[in-house]
């Protein structure tokens, strides 16, 4: 007989987000990725909103969950079609990571993803400057690369993370060159 898991909603969100990050770098089914990212983002968004985080505004929620809401309402018209941009899932995953960072320490996958996303989109601004420095150190400037090359760089970073094995630290060490 298998043991039952005792998990909090926050633990569920982190597990969903970590798996979604792995699936993004595996170029997995974008519908499955969006479903996992959307579920994690909802929990993290709500928890972050309770702490007054600006990222968790109702406008943010509506904008990032447009496609996910279409999935939930598919029972109305099973033949209804819509376009899904996989990059929306990547953006939603990034903002889920940012919300997660407001709630506690990030997993190694989340730290890597945060750096990868920033290197791919070169986000500037006071709140991103420390992250931008780490992202550029780890990945270089990925913003001019095609999407496939950006994903490959993230996959290389994740593979190196996995190859390093369990660590005593919960901090991802951005010492690699994933360009």
What keywords describe this structure?
mainly alpha; 179 residues; globular
Q: What is the compact description of this entry?
A:
This protein has 179 residues and is an all-alpha fold. Helix content is 63%, strand content 0%. It folds into two domains: 1-104, no CATH class; 106-179, no CATH class.
Show the helix and strand layout.
Blueprint: H1 9-25, H2 30-50, H3 58-64, H4 66-72, H5 86-103, H6 108-121, H7 129-139, H8 147-163
> How many domains make up the coordinates?
2
Q: What portion of residues belong to β-strands?
A: under 5%
DSSP strand tally: 0
Q: What's the N-to-C terminus distance?
A: 46 Å
User: For the CA atoms, what is the radius of gyration?
Assistant: 17 Å
Structural class, from secondary structure content?
Answer: mainly alpha
Assembly type: single chain
If you had to describe this structure to a student in words, what would you say it looks like?
- The structure is a single chain.
- With 179 residues, the protein is mainly α.
- It has 2 domains: 1-104, no CATH class; 106-179, no CATH class.
- It contains 8 helices and no strands.
- The protein has helices at residues 9-25, 30-50, 58-64, 66-72, 86-103, 108-121, 129-139, 147-163.
- The longest helix is centred in the first third of the chain and has 21 residues, at 30-50.
- The chain is globular.
């Amino acid at each position: 007989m298998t043991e039952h898991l005792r998990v909090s909603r926050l633990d569920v969100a982190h597990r969903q987000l970590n798996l979604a990050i792995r699936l993004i770098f595996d170029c997995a089914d974008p519908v499955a990725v969006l479903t996992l990212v959307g579920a994690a983002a909802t929990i993290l968004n709500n928890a972050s909103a309770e702490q007054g985080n600006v990222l968790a505004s109702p406008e943010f929620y509506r904008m990032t969950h447009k496609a996910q809401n279409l999935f939930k309402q598919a029972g109305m018209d099973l033949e209804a079609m819509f376009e899904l941009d996989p990059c929306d899932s990547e953006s939603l995953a990034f903002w889920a990571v940012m919300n997660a960072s407001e709630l506690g320490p990030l997993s190694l996958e989340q730290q890597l993803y945060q750096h990868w996303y920033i290197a791919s989109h070169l986000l500037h601004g006071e709140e991103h400057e420390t992250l931008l420095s780490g992202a550029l150190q780890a990945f270089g400037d990925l913003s001019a690369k095609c999407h496939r090359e950006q994903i490959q760089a993230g996959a290389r970073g994740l593979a190196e993370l996995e190859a390093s094995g369990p660590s005593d630290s919960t901090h991802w060490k951005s010492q690699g060159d994933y360009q």
